[in-house]
Design goal:
The structure is a homodimer. The first copy, chain A, is mostly helical. In chain A, 76% of the residues lie in helices and 1% in strands. Chain A has a single domain (3-320), classed as Farnesyl Diphosphate Synthase. In chain A, strand 1 (92-93) and strand 2 (96-97) form a beta hairpin. At the A-B interface, helix 5, helix 7 and helix 8 of A face helix 5, helix 7 and helix 8 of B.
Chain lengths: 323, 323
C-alpha cells in the first residue's frame, strides 16, 4: 500500500488538520508568520498527525479533539526539527533551505521555544489531565533523548541498549503518545489505548531504525540529503554499533579512528563497506522487522476497518520506505 | 531595605524551594546532572520565586503549592537563560562560565528544551486549569518577546511602543504570572490576584528598564559583565531609543552608523556620551520610576504585613540596584 492509499481513510480529517495547523502558526507578528509560511511549505509527510487520526478512526469518526491532538503532536515535532537543524548546523531540510540557514540560529532557537510554548497552551485545552500528562511526558522523553544523543557525540562505544533508549525517547515517545490518545478519544477505553501506545512505541522504534539504515544505504537524491550525515554529525547508529561489536579488534579500531576525525567521502565509503561486511546492515534490518511485527501484533484484538488496515500498512511503509 | 531584609519573611520557604528546585533537576542522566550542578552553583538572585512566595505570604502561609509554582517559574526562567546564552553567544553568566562555553550550543539548546518540558509536566500537576493557562500564556509571551528582540536586530528605528511590547513579553509576563498565582493560592480571590498581576507586570517593566540602564551606566565589575553588551549584541533599548528620537538628524545618523557596525570601546564611549547628552538616561530613569509607582499603587488595598512591606521594598530594589 502506498502512502496515499494508507492515508485515504482519513484524508478529509487531514485536510481539516492542515487548516488548523496553519491557524495555530498565525500570530500577526511578521517574522513568525514568515517562518510559519516557510515551515508549512517545507511540510513533511505528516505521519504523526496521520497516526493520531488513524488510531482514532479505528473506533469511530475522529472529531475536533483528535484533530487538535494531531496538530499539537505535529507542532512539538516541528519545534524539535527546528532545534535539530540548529544542533546539526543543517542547511537543507525537506529539500528547502533549513530555517537557520535563512534566518539565523538565534531566531531558530527562539522560534522553536515559541512553538513549544504554543503547544503547551493547546495541551491545556484538552479534556483530561491524563491526556495532557501523556503528551507532556512524551515531550520530556523526547528532549531527554535528543540531549543524550547530542551529548553522546560520535562515541563509537555506545551500546545497543543506549541506542534503543535514545531512539525510544527521541522518536517513539511522541508517536506512541499520539496513537494512545487518538485511540482513547474514540474508544474511551484505557485498555485499548494501552495497545495503541505499544503499537506506537514499536512502530516508532522500527521507523527510526529504518531511518538510520537509510543514512547508510539510501539514495542521496531520493532522501534529499547526502548519506553518512549521522556519522559526520557525530551520531553512531545501530548498523555501525553492531558492526563494531562484531569486528576483530584491529579492524574496529581503524574504523573508530575514522569516525573520530573529519570524514571525507572516501572515509565514508570505507565505513559503509565495513558496516555491510560485518553484518551491521542486515542486523539492523532484522531488528526493524522484529519491532514491526510487534507493532502489528498489538492490533490483533482491534476490529477490522479501513483505518486498522492502514495502521498495519503504515508499519510496512515505515520499514520499506526509500525516504 | 536590602535584599536580605526583603526576603526575611519567606526565608524558610525559600530554603524549601531551593531543595525542591534541586530535586526537579535530578535525572539520573550524567550530562543533565552535571549541567544541573553548574546551573545551581551559578544561581541567580531567585527574585522570581521570591515574588511568588511573598505574594502568597500577603494572604496566608505559603504552602507546598506556592513552592511548586515558585520552582516552575524559576525553571522556565532558567531555560530561557540557557537559550539566551546560546543566542547571545555569551561566555559568562553570573560570574561563572556560561553553559554553552563549557558544553556547547547543541547541548545548551537541548537542555533548555528539557527544562521547558519538565516545567510543562509540573504545570500539569497544579490544581486549576486557570493557573496552568496563566503560566503557559506567560511562557508564550516570553518566547514571543525574545523572538521579537532577536529579530529586531540592532534596529535603531525601533519605537518606544515596540520596546515596551518586547520587555512586557520577555520580562514582565513571567513575573506577573508568578505574582498573580502566588496571591491567588492563599487569597482564593480573582480580584486580589488581578491586582498582583498588575503589580507584577509594572514591577517587571520597571525591573527591565533598570536592567537596560545598567548596561549604560552600571559598573562592569559589579554587574559581572562589560557594559554596552546590549548594543554590541544587537539590542537597542530605551535610553538609546529616546536619545535617537531627540537628537538632530545628522547627530542621530552618525550614531546609527556606529551601531550598525562592529563596536569598539571608543565607539561605545561615544554612544554612552550621546545617550546621556540627549537625555536618554534621564528619560529611562523617569519611566522606571513611573512603573515602580504604578506597581506600588496596586497593593493599596492589601492589608499591611511583613510580606507586603517586602513587596513594596522589592520595587525600590528593582530600580535602585547596582547589579
Amino acid at each position: 500500500m502506498d502512502l496515499r492509499t494508507i492515508l485515504a481513510p482519513i484524508q478529509d480529517d487531514l485536510a481539516v488538520f492542515e487548516q488548523e495547523f496553519k491557524e495555530m502558526f498565525r500570530s500577526n507578528i511578521d517574522v513568525i508568520d514568515q517562518i510559519a509560511d516557510h515551515l508549512i511549505r517545507a511540510k513533511g509527510k505528516r505521519l504523526r498527525p496521520a497516526l493520531v487520526l488513524l488510531s482514532a478512526a479505528t473506533h469511530g469518526q475522529p472529531r475536533q479533539d483528535a484533530i487538535r491532538v494531531a496538530a499539537i503532536v505535529e507542532l512539538i515535532h516541528t519545534a524539535t526539527l527546528v532545534h535539530d537543524d540548529v544542533v546539526d548546523e543543517a542547511t537543507v531540510r525537506r529539500g528547502l533551505p533549513s530555517l537557520n540557514s535563512i534566518w539565523d540560529n538565534h531566531v531558530s532557537v527562539l522560534l522553536g521555544d515559541y512553538l513549544l510554548a504554543k503547544a503547551l497552551t493547546l495541551i491545556l485545552l484538552l479534556d483530561s489531565r491524563d491526556m495532557m500528562l501523556t503528551i507532556s511526558r512524551s515531550t520530556e522523553r523526547l528532549s531527554k533523548g535528543e540531549l543524550l544523543q547530542a551529548n553522546q557525540g560520535a562515541d563509537p562505544d555506545i551500546t545497543e541498549a543506549e541506542y534503543f533508549e535514545i531512539i525510544g525517547d527521541k522518536t517513539a515517545s511522541l508517536v506512541s503518545a499520539g496513537c494512545e490518545i487518538g485511540a482513547f478519544l474514540t474508544s474511551g477505553s484505557k485498555d485499548v489505548a494501552a495497545c495503541f501506545r505499544q503499537y506506537g512505541e514499536s512502530l516508532g522504534l522500527a521507523f527510526q531504525i529504518a531511518d538510520d539504515l537509510l543514512d547508510f544505504v539510501g539514495d542521496a537524491d531520493t532522501i534529499g540529503k547526502p548519506t553518512g550525515n549521522d556519522v559526520r554529525t557525530g551520531t553512531v547508529t545501530l548498523p555501525l554499533i553492531r558492526a563494531l561489536q562484531r569486528a576483530p579488534h584491529a579492524e574496529a579500531a581503524a574504523i573508530r579512528e575514522i569516525i573520530d576525525g573529519e570524514i571525507d567521502d572516501g572515509d565514508w565509503q570505507r565505513v559503509i563497506e565495513f558496516t555491510k561486511a560485518r553484518g551491521g546492515i542486515e542486523y539492523a534490518r532484522q531488528k526493524a522487522e522484529a519491532f514491526a511485527a510487534t507493532a502489528k501484533a498489538q492490533l490483533n484484538s482491534v476490529k477490522d476497518s479501513p483505518a486498522k488496515r492502514s495502521l498495519l500498512a503504515m508499519v510496512d511503509y515505515a520499514i520499506d520506505r526509500e525516504k
